Amino acid sequence: MPIQSWFPTSVYLENLQKEGLQKFNRELLEQCYLVRDTDEEGQDWSASHYIHGYTSYGSITDLHRRFPHFEELAQKIDRHVRKFARHLDMDLEEGRLEMTSCWINIMPTNTAHSSHLHPLSVLSGTYYVSVPKGASSIKFEDPRLSQMMAAPPKLSSAKLRNQLFISMEPKAGQVALWESWLRHEVPPNASREDRISVSFNYR
DSSP states of 171-202 as a string? Predict the structure, then answer.
């Protein structure tokens, strides 16, 4: 072929585990609400920075070191991170990637998460605890977008590999991973139920 595709952007999406996922998710869901209901500092922070919703990002970002359910989640995610790092051909020099932060996001109706990335991390991701029908997808941005100064717009029929924004619709029980420099956002939740996830960073 005269044309080759270089510098791909990889995003990982897989079920957390094969068996016992529903039970694990139910228990984790209870823990998410328990943390929210007792985290007054996080409630105050969310009121100013996460309109309509709750996140422990401004208060408790080490859930995996404080609570057994989140510690177990981190151990399960570790396996997926190792698999993704191998796919990316990362040379860790006999070291390993370690979860450094972990926080809850509870998004009721109309709650959104604006475009951002995760600086000072290697891999980032989200585990989806509850994704009701009609809930927001996660939207990724082409990392080259800011350099496309004179580029024409894409055709409405553009192939997936040529699009500037791609939305992924995860399901409850799935873990998504990407390199931390990849900018992403979550549009307003159109569902009447809470969209609940646990986000994290690895270094």
Answer: -TTEEEEEETT--EEE----SSS-EEEEEEEE
